[in-house]
């Protein structure tokens, strides 16, 4: 590559080689945009955010390069795995059936990703501790340690570079289905509710002011973003793409990420800031399924970016790290608003529980029992006498958990003969005639019983009430904070209760809501806090979250 100056005297290490490759790929990408600046940063086809095989998303820096890599190589499924991960697939089968071995195809080359590890050393004793142990220390205890970050390079393969399709066809079909979701059409005019709410409710780090004019900019002196009104853009994607560009600029202000100063605007140094804004907005747009084209004003900086990249590959490292931090700040805010909007909709659609009556079977009398006296009252039409007699069959044991219903009528032929405020008698004339004596309970009494005794022996009705209770408790908790777990490796996993499946869903949040990567049964015999504690312990014991490798995430991210 002409004009490319190598800086290494002792030979490049793995990080240098990765940066050289990243720089070459970015130069190729920028040169293609230079020839046609109207083309998007990333492919307009349905290419979604890159993840590892277990579904964990790559961070901003790695995501950019993997997106470009997928586009260049034509990979339709942006899932990647290390060689060790491929080998683990051959050990994960729990049945005794022989399955074909999963392997990397012959001749396929891996692609580098860069992760940051941390070494924690006590200032006085020199003792080393693991980073996940360091994170558990108090603020005062942390001051006793020096923390040294180190960038490391790992090699990954796309799933298309393996025989996964033949060896594990069910897994391959699942991935194909997951990544066959259509993206937003390029010209479609649409609204993105989380960002609309962010503007309307002034939830960003600075005011955003849509105005009917022709300029879009971030004013560092006034600390505000000004953009044309959405209706002035040819598509919704164009509006949000422009807004993401200016939001990326705003993350660089003093007191936020401290990238830019007032004197930076208009200077030579600002060319790099413009590249950060371009890549940051492209990455955020891709995150939410939108196409991002280069901002026309940024075209003037194309040659400067190419010169910097050809002069020093380190330029791409510092730039991509800034892109990662900025994009993370934006997506965390948008994801938080998206989750809150989803929960508000669920609450609006949920009818406030009314005080209702439940019927619990306390005696079931059939032909083999002595029902002659009951028959006599029924035949005479003396239902008051029948009810008085029926009450004598109640043994005083309270709610029959398995046979409690929201209605006294449960079977074909059932006939409610009589009821008062405490009891009901149901008669069914089939099979010689049966009488069912039912004790009535209010919803409050049923809920109190569930809280006290759980649902170990409960039937479907009580289990349904327990699910409602869990959903209500979860909704109350999320009004105060968005529940999430921070894993030892730095991942943040959001938590939601799925009433339909009666499971605790764990995973990342997108504009479409929470994407469940893990699901755990909800234990109604334990409290909500106990359930969350159990789930947290299970997650911490998972190998993928116990890794010592930590990705360098922006420290101001959302936490539980």
Automatic annotation (TrEMBL):
Residues 21-157 form the N-terminal domain. It comes from the Bacteria. One of its GO terms (molecular function) is single-stranded DNA binding. Keywords: Coiled coil. The keyword Coiled coil applies. InterPro entries: ArdC_N, MPTase-PolyVal. Residues 212-316 form the Polyvalent protein metallopeptidase domain. Residues 525-555 form a coiled coil. This is DUF1738 domain-containing protein.
